[in-house]
Write a structure and sequence with these properties.
369 residues; alpha+beta; two-stranded antiparallel sheet; 8 helices; globular
Length: 369
């Protein structure tokens, strides 16, 4: 008896099943690193126990831990950051959707914050039930980093006179990481592209030994990317370098929550830059923010003002909220106590120079052929 040949592709399978079958075909056995099913997850009591370091005394990072640096860094009151990621042996990231990567269970990421010294290291882990969050505060001589309670730590390290860094609560971590479809904000095809934006606010040179998208694809740690993304390194397409940097900053610092989906979908307001769209489509920020009325009332400003007002930065709600640290007005609402003056100047200049009334009605932000 002959059976008809199936037309179903492996890529048509659900993500979890696709990953499982691929691992099975490769003979991969994944070692569980999480608590048994049903057991509540308890973060390790110290950073040393999370597995980041092979040698705590010398702060030697454990083998298999990948150093990375996003091209559009998240502003955190001027903190210097170092970031690492580790995938369970034999696993990989499913990147069939280039904007929303799917990470295998057991993925771990760390982000170290420094001001005058090491202040904290944030830790997230992909468990069977979803992402888990913890933060560790360093002591003054950097010999220990201990788990911060669920409610965070209000006073950690002085940033400048009168301003003290605060470690967020786990609920705060979830607000940022779970507000939209992208849960790991700095690990995306765009953020890790080798075509790094030299004009990005607070641009970081790629650290020695750090991985980028090309490295991850070559090592088969990222799989499934569409040919349109692998053919050339992904980058923000914009009419000017200024527009590219502005769209990148908004995507990294605001686009985690403002995606046009999820809890904020009723706003129809998206600042995330997407690769997975038609070439003739505007970037989400251009389509949903430029000359679009804002529902938010900024104290002291007229009610009928736009999110981004063409040619008029001071009449733009986005600018007013970036420039404020009033808890009821500021954006982002969490994670910063100081205004990002460099980025604020960039966004103002972008609105004044590139978002002229005529430019806002053209294909600014449309991907070029």
């Amino acid at each position: 008896m002959r059976f008809p040949r199936s037309r179903v592709s492996v890529r048509d399978l659900p993500t979890g099943l696709w990953l499982t079958l691929t691992a099975a075909l490769l003979g991969v056995v994944t070692v569980a690193t999480s608590a048994p099913p049903g057991a509540p997850w308890e973060p390790p009591a110290t950073l040393q126990e999370t597995g980041l370091y092979a040698d705590w005394a010398t702060k030697t990072v454990a083998p298999g831990t990948l150093l990375f640096s996003p091209q559009y860094p998240l502003w955190s009151d001027g903190a210097t950051k170092t970031r690492w990621m580790r995938l369970p042996k034999g696993t990989f990231i499913d990147a069939r959707n280039p904007d929303v990567w799917r990470f295998p269970v057991g993925t771990r990421l760390w982000k170290e914050f420094r001001f005058s010294r090491r202040a904290e290291t944030r830790f997230i882990e992909r468990g069977p039930e979803g992402w888990r969050f913890a933060a560790y505060a360093w002591n003054a001589d950097e010999t220990a980093a201990t788990l911060v309670g669920e409610n965070g730590l209000r006073r950690c390290v002085e940033i400048r006179e009168g301003v003290v860094h605060a470690v967020p609560s786990r609920a705060d971590c979830r607000v940022c990481h779970e507000a939209g479809p992208v849960h790991v904000l700095g690990v995306t095809a765009l953020q890790l592209s080798s075509a790094r934006d030299p004009n990005a606010p607070h641009a970081e040179p790629l650290p020695e030994g750090a991985v980028d998208l090309d490295t991850l694809v070559a090592r088969r740690l990222v799989r499934g990317l569409p040919a349109s993304v692998t053919a050339t390194p992904p980058r923000i397409s914009a009419p000017t370098p200024l527009s590219r940097a502005a769209l990148g900053y908004l995507s990294a610092n605001c686009g985690g929550c403002h995606t046009g989906t999820g809890e904020l979908s009723s706003l129809s307001f998206a600042l995330n830059y997407t690769l997975n769209r038609r070439a003739d489509q505007l970037a989400p920020a251009m389509a949903t923010a430029v000359d679009k009325p804002s529902k938010f009332r900024v104290p002291g400003m007229p009610e009928a003002i736009n999110r981004l007002c063409s040619g008029h930065p001071d009449a733009s709600v986005v600018v007013q909220r970036m420039a404020s640290r009033n808890p009821l007005v500021q954006m982002p609402p969490l994670g910063t106590q100081l205004v990002d003056e460099e980025a604020l100047a960039l966004i103002k200049r972008w609105i004044a120079e590139d978002l002229t009334p005529s430019a806002s009605s053209t294909a600014a932000g449309v991907r070029q052929p």
